[in-house]
Amino acid sequence: MFSAQGAFLLAIYIYATKQAYGNGTGDQAFYADQFKYDQDKKVYLCPEGKELHYTRDRKKDGKTIGYEYRNDQACKQCKLKARCTSAKKGRSICRHVDQDFLDLIDSQTKRNMEKYKLRQMIVEHPFGTIKRGWGAYFFLTKRRVSVSAEISLSFLAYNLKRVINILGTEEILSRLRQRKKVVLA
Fold it and tell me: What is the rounded CA–CA span in Å between residue 22 and residue 44?
């Protein structure tokens, strides 16, 4: 991807699931993600359809981290208050200062769940094992072709060792014998 000036631009796509915040009662129907934000009115709508209005900034170390929304009057009259909150005054929702960006990431992740699931796989463990467990702190060869062959051999050895640990040598040998019969038949 290139900009108007011809410079190369790098696009980074973030795939992360939205964090679910509890409500103190354990009823998932009233978790914070069930409260919908109305961008036009700048209010939250609770699952019962009541509006929660901005009341104050939430700060940490003097810096605004979010905005608090609540409607104590509506909560007092709500028949589902016990399911929604254990607070005497009523429910409050905190909207993070970067919530619009976080919502964009969430919708992007939902559209690309197959990529997200691929990124959930752990890849650091093999590198750590090869580096620390086997003492391969640096490459012994130079140039791309030979370094590629060296790392390929390291990962082949890692994968074989893992298969032996998972299946055992007898199971591997029996599977190889079965394949040999299929090839020769």
Answer: 16
What is 66-132 written as a DSSP string? Answer: EEEEE-HHHHHH-TTHHHH---SS--EEEEETTHHHHHHHHHHHHHTHHHHHHHTS--HHHHHIIII
Whether 10 is in a domain gets the answer no
Q: pTM of the entire structure?
A: 0.57
pLDDT higher than threshold 90 for residue 20: no
pLDDT for res 12: 76
Return phi, psi of residue 8, to 5°.
-75, 130
Whether residues 36 and 104 share a domain: the answer is: yes
- 8 pLDDT exceeds 70? no
